[in-house]
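Field reference: sequence -> structure
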Amino acid sequence: MFKINYKELILPFLLSTLLLLTSCSGRTDQVSGAEIPLDTPTNQPEPTETLPEEENIRETETIIVEEEIEGEIVPEGEDLFANVVSVSAAGQVNQYQISVGISSPDTGCEQFADWWEVLAEDGELIYRRILLHSHINEQPFTRSGGPVVIEEDTVVYIRAHMKNHGYGGNIMKGSVKSGFLLIENPPVFPDAIESEAPLPTGCNF
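Structure field:
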């Protein structure tokens, strides 16, 4: 019976395999421990950079404009002083009752319209009506006084006084006969009038 010698068959096979591997070793390279063929392109073209959608949006410049806020101007005669807004008279010669309407920034006994008065054209104090309390919740308010000793055609000035601020509000001029009107440029009266009697002796509220 014919016998096969396996050793004689395996030896040529191993030699052929070894030669094949030796010839292929010159065509490979080691990259990170793994064999890749040399004919495989290693320089890949860099990908085109694409900006995120947000970066493609055109930037808009935000300009912050600082607003210049002007300080409030306190109108003279409105926030500091008592203003005469109306005058009416009734009665007889040298015994007139005069009613005066006043608008004033009353806050209490520390600041309120504390009198109104009648002045002659030469600055003489004819009559003064003392106001005994503030009128915070009654603006404008009207108070009457008398008797005022004047003739029907006697021209007088009527003005109001503000505690802690004095005079400075609107003044009316006129007579019982002609009526009373607001004047823009009142005369300057002597400062001493402010201290003449009668004067307030207190404040009720």
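Note: The chain is about 10% helix and 30% strand.
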